[in-house]
Amino acid sequence: MRTSSFFGQLRSAYASEIDDMTFDSEGKNVLRQRLAARRKELTFLRQMMELSPEMVSVVFHQGFRFKNPALIEHLLSLESDEFPAWDTLSDSIVLEPWAQQLADELCKEPMGEWLLTVAAGLEYLFAKPERASAKDHGDEDEDDEDSEKDADNSMDGEDEEEKDARAREEAGQDWMVEQGFDRKD
What is the pTM of this model? Predict the structure, then answer.
């Protein structure tokens, strides 16, 4: 499975969000409670859809079932401006009833369907870490020559992508501080 630079960058941020929410300071698993609280904040979180989609996407954690993995894996190879319309994916992605309610609310926003697509991709990657990370580092199906070409081509936009990733991370950390959490170092 090949992932685009967009999903490649957001994948670790999404996993970090889930990890940060999983345990409290005493080591107790509080993921369920924190997800419930985050889902209640969806009205506020909407304003972060474009800047920090991973922070909003976590509200859909464990809310997707994937009927057509090949379609999702193709989606993961696309950049954010190449996503298909949500309704073309919705036959292959089943939302849990609670997640469907959130999706219906979110789709009222101009970027709501885009965020659902991002959330589905991130959740799929999160559930399949061994397959995603193997391809991120290159596997036997990809020869070294192609990898070198991809690396050379990606150098051109790397600075801009890194700036965007840092800006999203910083905005996410600012939001967490506003919510009363300590800033990550």
Answer: 0.69
